[in-house]
Specification:
Shape: elongated
Distance between the termini: 62 Å
Number of domains: 1
Strand content: under 5%
Largest sheet: none
Order of helices and strands: HHH
Helix content: over 70%
Number of strands: 0
Number of helices: 3
Length: 121
């Protein structure tokens, strides 16, 4: 029974990872299609929207990738070494998420009501 449970959790973790990758790829495709259809009218606005759409897809995909890593590490192989590797992966992905959110929304995640000033163009 224990082996069956671990196998099922491994499969679920991989499925969550695959969903994260699918979200990133699909989001990039949708953002690119929107950019290409509107870039001729207003390039600067289209480019900004493209970056925001791509950033949102990556942010959401990263959340799923982190969830898949947690499932596989904690449930399937909870050794100290694997948990330390997971902590490093989560730290890197969290930093990437925060940097992307700053790029997409123009503010840090903890500054919900505030917006950073835009740099002069």
């Amino acid at each position: 029974m224990d082996t069956y449970y671990r196998d099922v959790m491994e499969l679920i973790g991989r499925a969550v990872d695959a969903l994260g990758v699918l979200i990133i790829v699909t989001g990039a495709g949708v953002a690119t299609a929107r950019f290409l259809s509107s870039a001729r009218r207003d390039f600067s606005h289209s480019y900004q929207s493209y970056r925001q759409g791509l950033g949102r897809a990556i942010l959401l995909g990263l959340e799923f990738l982190i969830a898949g890593d947690i499932i596989r590490t904690v449930v399937v192989a909870p050794t100290l070494e694997n948990v330390m590797i997971l902590a490093l992966i989560v730290a890197v992905r969290t930093f990437l998420s925060m940097a992307l959110q700053l790029e997409v929304e123009g503010r840090w995640p903890w500054n919900r009501g505030e917006e950073l000033p835009k740099p002069p163009s």
